[in-house]
Amino acid sequence: MKPAHYVNGVFSTTEATFPLLSPVDGSQVGVVPEASRDVVDAAVRAARAALDGPWGRTSVEERCAFLRRIADGIEARFDEFVAAEVADTGKPRDLAATVDIPRAIGNFRAYADLSYGRPERAYPTTVPGWSGSGQALNYTVRRPLGVVAIISPWNLPLLLLTWKVAPALAAGNAVVAKPSEETPSTATLLAEVIGEAGLPDGAFNLVHGHGAGAAGEYLTSHPGVDAIAFTGASATGAAIMRNAAEHVTPVSFELGGKNPALVFADADLAEAVEGTVRSSFTHSGQICLCTERVYVQRPVFDEFVRALAERARALTDYGPMISAEHRDKVLSYYRLAVEEGATVLAGGGVPTFGDARDGGFYVEPTVLTGLPQSARTVREEIFGPVCHVAPFDDEDEAIGLANDSPYGLAATVWTTDLSRAHRVAPRVEAGIVWVNCWNLRDLRTPFGGVKASGIGREGGEYSLDFFSEPVNVCVKI
Ligand code: NAD
Ligand code: 6OD
């Protein structure tokens, strides 16, 4: 399978291409076509035509059946999807096989269930003094937004793409998707599966290419696009929003984070350490929900830090950064941390494996302490396997430190005091707060961030709301 555009039900490539590199050893594993403005334009036109054709006339039952067929199609080619995701990202196979691909299947099944079972509201209205019955019935129907652009990042490529494609299709929109230039493969496989599922041509289109000044920007500034759903960096979100403003195009944004974990002295410390190993180092920290700031109550600070650093040093089965450029960015933060005065308790450099991985884009899992809250290392998203651990004395201070950030995506609270958990969680400025767990997902719940971490919520009915427009119908009885 070679990365290819999928426009109006047809696969194509372009003369302009760029190399696809393996993050594991830096070798070239493929070429990716770079969509021109014409390709993007053709995709948007195909999507519009689909809405005017059979796709625009599908019932919710028919769309749910398509979604289930797509889920079955991914499942039938499970190993192929896993292999493609591993090849593009270098992530451990186990992660792709237990998280990324099952969740992509789950996304289609969840939105088939959710959109089929979705109730709408009706309001019987009485107006005294009216002739006749004096009554009316108000009810709400939902219609799709139209052509939606979906732009996704490289860290959880298929999971995050399908997280938006499934509800967008369920709600009856036509989609033009652009995956990250770093990870084109599972998106291309998805297009194959969607074609095999019999989705009408043009209902789902895929274009590959870069973001700024390329396919991503052509798509998000296209006047034929009715809505934009984007997951990626906050700075990219700001750039997309500037373009979207031109046509007042609605946006749903899932952006960056600098997520705190609060470890109280009454926590089960072993559980908190293991949980923080997962929340800071899963997928080498390349998940927007990963913890990069850990605040630990003073009586258990030394014990926690010692145990966390020991666990970080013992990690061996971890994947690389997505690219040489991203590795260099993460390493620049490792250097900055030292310049800012950090104590490096684990990692801080590049591992040596003595095999082909030495040509790859690896960095060591890293634990830092000793920085003030004002340090750039503590304020800026690094998006690598690194956390800074700092002490606090009481609940108010912990909440203040957690909230002292331009971001507000996710937080984790470790405590065995249930009252404290309920007290603290709503005071943390984040869209998602986990208590004694991390990244435990129920697809019906609202997902998203506050401040620079995003605009709006996705998940369950929140996604279906974004991807559709309510229309109130008032009938005089
Ligand atoms: P990125 O913003 O660089 O790229 C994301 C996508 O946007 C890519 O497809 C890219 O080609 C495209 N793009 C880039 N510039 C563009 C532009 N000017 N116009 C249109 N499209 C453009 O992000 P990334 O490096 O791929 O991913 C890492 C970032 O994503 C991190 O900041 C991370 O926190 C964030 N992220 C957030 C969530 C979330 O749910 N909140 C999930 C995953 C990743
Ligand atoms: O689990 C999800 O639905 C989701 N959107 C995860 C995002 C992870 C960010 O990297």
Oligomer: single chain
- The helix fraction, in percent, is 25-40%
Percent strand: 15-25%
**Which molecules are bound besides the chains?**
nicotinamide-adenine-dinucleotide, (2E,4E)-2-amino-6-oxohexa-2,4-dienoic acid
Shape: globular
Helical run tally:
15
* Gyration radius over CA: 24 Å
The average pLDDT is 97
Q: Write out the strand line-up for the largest beta sheet, numbering strands in chain order.
A: 14-15-16-13-12-18-19
Query: How many beta-strand elements?
Result: 22
N- and C-termini, Cα separation: 59 Å
Low-confidence stretches: none
Summing up helix and strand content along with how strands pair, one would put the structural category as alpha/beta
Q: What characterizes the major β-sheet?
A: 7 strands, mixed
Describe the structure.
The chain has helices spanning 37-52, 60-76, 78-89, 93-116, 157-170, 185-196, 215-220, 234-246, 269-281, 298-314, 324-339, 376-379, 395-403, 418-424, 460-466; strands at 5-7, 10-12, 17-21, 28-33, 122-126, 135-144, 147-151, 174-178, 204-206, 227-231, 251-254, 259-263, 291-297, 343-346, 366-369, 386-392, 407-408, 410-414, 432-435, 450-451, 454-455, 468-476. The chain is α/β, with parallel strands linked by helices and 477 residues long. The strands form six sheets. It has a seven-stranded mixed β-sheet with strand order 14-15-16-13-12-18-19, sandwiched between helices. Helix 2 (60-76) packs antiparallel against helix 4, helix 2 crosses helix 6 (185-196) and helix 3 packs across helix 4 (93-116). The site of nicotinamide-adenine-dinucleotide has 31 residues, from helix 7 and helix 8.
